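Newbie here. two chains, one complex. Structure please?
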Amino acid sequence: GAGVSQSPSNKVTEKGKDVELRCDPISGHTALYWYRQSLGQGLEFLIYFQGNSAPDKSGLPSDRFSAERTGGSVSTLTIQRTQQEDSAVYLCASSLVSLTTDTQYFGPGTRLTVL
Amino acid sequence: TQLLEQSPQFLSIQEGENLTVYCNSSSVFSSLQWYRQEPGEGPVLLVTVVTGGEVKKLKRLTFQFGDARKDSSLHITAAQPGDTGLYLCAVSGGYQKVTFGIGTKLQVIP
């Protein structure tokens, strides 16, 4: 079956522009996460959607970052007025949550470069 | 303060050597997961451990969950260049948000 897909795979933009990153999770997965990963670093949690609950936005680094998940499926991460420090790989993951396990399935990521 | 502490953060070894990496916390978890991320790709689940003292083997990789379910180790026997990557541990409590450690970056030199 299809895994998690993300688009675009690469995005180069100029400082100050807005960008939208898309994530298509695995069908039926109730949880969706966005992470940011700088070169050679670990995962930085950004935002978490679980079912119909209010999203956990505690990881968003500034109010320039926002995300939505429409119809419990596709998610879009928007970065407004991009800065050079926003350059990183943005990873999306989805999971089918249960009481005993929460395996995350990751997409290939979107590499964002802000010039 | 990190919920999960991983050590070492970086490890460079020769092909054929053995190694162990650690994931530690002061909290108790119902389960713990190990992921591996290869360059240019997203992390992929290697194993989930759920029982204190549990040992799981995946070919040359041996995973252990501490008796108190606060820590875990990953041991690799006779490391190969294909083992190179970022090893991440992660925990969650049922419907709670998954939390990752910062990872151990392993390089196996041919």
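Moderator note: Residues 5 and 58 of chain A are 24 Å apart (CA to CA). Chain A has a mean pLDDT of 92. Thread marked as resolved.
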